[in-house]
Amino acid sequence: MPEGHTIHRLARDIGRDLRTNPLAASSPQGRFESGAARLDGQRLISTEALGKHLFLNFDDDQLHIHLGLFGKFRRQQAPFDPPGENKRLRLASADVAWDLSGPTVCDLIDPDTYNAHHKRIGPDPLRKDSDPTRFVSRAAKSPTPIGGLLLNQAAIAGIGNVYRAEFCFLAGIHPLTPAKLLPDGKLDELWELAVEHLHEGVRLNRIVTRNPDDVGTSRGRIAAGDRLYVYKRAGKPCRHCQTPIARDDIANRKVWFCPTCQPR
Ligand SMILES: [Zn+2]
Predict the structure, then answer these.
(1) Which of 3, 88, 90, 164 does the annotation list as catalytic?
(2) CB 49 within 8 A of CB 7
(3) 158-194, pLDDT tens digit by residue?
(4) pLDDT for residue 226 is more than 80
(5) Helix (H) or strand (E) run with residue 164 in it
(6) Vertex 63 angle, CA 59 and 69, to 5°
């Protein structure tokens, strides 16, 4: 599933490509036909990412998109390929088209619905207007394992399965530790790790948590298998202590950790 950095990057890139000119909107798949018909000919005014939610603000309408597990946006430059039958939405200027397929949500929403999303979704480490104390104070009272809480979008927005495993490793905490039992300062540290690494994820358009000094190369050129510390590395040696990385389940999703660097 795309994590928050992907959605913020999309907000930035789609805004850069499509803002200001009237757009052609269509739903080749047909499932968003009336919405696309409404958007057709409108201008994109602004874009906004909140956690894993994307909001596109047009002249007269607001579009809400959540990619879910399988949703994807693809960009192409003119001349455009004919959109495939699985495309929920194509938004196109004369030069650039963005094709959306497989989203969980693609709806026009009213201001009340937009405000309800803002109330429900937790602070987003990629947004300057986020209040980290909302995350820290909630987590400090929570008996939920920290590895589960980090996936709860109402507690902290934008973190998915890759980042949650990596942040627990970087903070040296076992993901099954109840959040309220974490030592003082660990919740603030997790927030700071999220701010730093999600911003890096937006910049690189992929997840890199590994310290470039450990790899001996500049960050953007780290090979795929070298970018992370624990995620999907079960049985492989910990990059710090050589202990084989272990795997467990939290919140119905697999989580990876080093039993030595992250003791229970
Ligand atoms: Zn280790």
Answers:
(1) 3
(2) yes
(3) 999 999 999 999 999 999 999 999 999 999 999 999 9
(4) yes
(5) helix 161-171
(6) 155
DSSP label at 181?
G
Q: Which two tokens stand for residue 6?
A: 């992907």
pTM comes to: 0.93
Q: Is 88 a catalytic residue?
A: no
Q: What is the DSSP string of 196-210?
A: HHHHHHHHHTS---S
CA 7 / ligand 1 centre spacing (Å): 31
Please determine, for residue 108, whether its predicted confidence score (pLDDT) is greater than 70.
yes
- The verdict on whether 3 is a catalytic residue reads yes
Give the pLDDT band (50/70/90) at residue 20. Answer: confident
Hey, what domains does the chain have and what are their CATH numbers?
4-120 (3.20.190.10), 132-257 (1.10.8.50)
Contacts of 220 (CB under 8 A, 6+ apart): 204, 208
- For 209, the token pair is 């948590």
Whether omega for the bond prior to residue 79 falls within 30 degrees of 0, making it cis, is: yes
